[in-house]
Amino acid sequence: MYTSGYGIEQDPSKDRGYALVKTAQVYMNDPKRPRVDLTVRGKVKMFAHFSSRDIILRGKAGEKIVSELVINQRPEHQFKVLNITARNGRDIKYQLETMLRTKPPVYVLTVENKKTTPGNYYDTIYLMTDSAIHPKIQVIVRGYILTPPPS
């Protein structure tokens, strides 16, 4: 069994894609063959290169905590980001900048912590695109806000 698809890659040296191998075990009621191992193999073509898989905001409460994620498009899979939203958005401020000097354009997603008290949070930023392959790109945001040292 073979398959193919599109992925988001962190390592630009793998810009031609990578091999995907997944195995599943199927249990049946046939006493002669109670289990069958199925293997799926395929080549995943790169849709875009992300500088990291997610955004981590770690620092002390009261400090400015900012992180950036750079999205480099593949020439054969160019897309436009049409809209950007957050699942919750309560603890983060986000902005998407388009670098038009490059062909294809590069996107820079900047995320800033808004949480003022110590604690952790988790959110997701959605980039809605005009791409038929990836109409919605999800970026996970994790915040780890620490207690500042006593002054």
General description of the model:
Mean pLDDT is 87; it is low at 1-6. This protein has 2 domains: 2-47, no CATH class; 48-146, Sandwich (Immunoglobulin-like). It is built from no helices and 10 strands. The strands form 2 sheets. Strands 1, 2, 3, 5, 7 and 8 form a 6-stranded mixed beta sheet that branches. It is an all-beta fold and 151 residues long.
Topology:
Elements: E1 2-9, E2 18-27, E3 35-50, E4 54-60, E5 66-73, E6 81-86, E7 92-99, E8 106-113, E9 119-129, E10 136-146
Parallel strand pairs: 1-3, 4-10
Antiparallel strand pairs: 2-3, 3-5, 5-8, 6-9, 7-8, 9-10
* Fourth CATH level, the homologous superfamily of the largest domain: Immunoglobulins
Distance between the termini: 63 Å
Which overall shape is indicated by the principal axes computed on the Cα atoms? flat
For the secondary structure, the number of strands is: 10
Instruction: Please give the radius of gyration in angstroms.
Output: 20 Å
Number of domains: 2
Structural class: mainly beta
Concise synopsis of the structure shown:
With 151 residues, the protein is mainly β. The chain has strands spanning 2-9, 18-27, 35-50, 54-60, 66-73, 81-86, 92-99, 106-113, 119-129, 136-146.
Name the descriptors.
single chain; 151 residues; Immunoglobulin-like; 10 strands; 0% helix
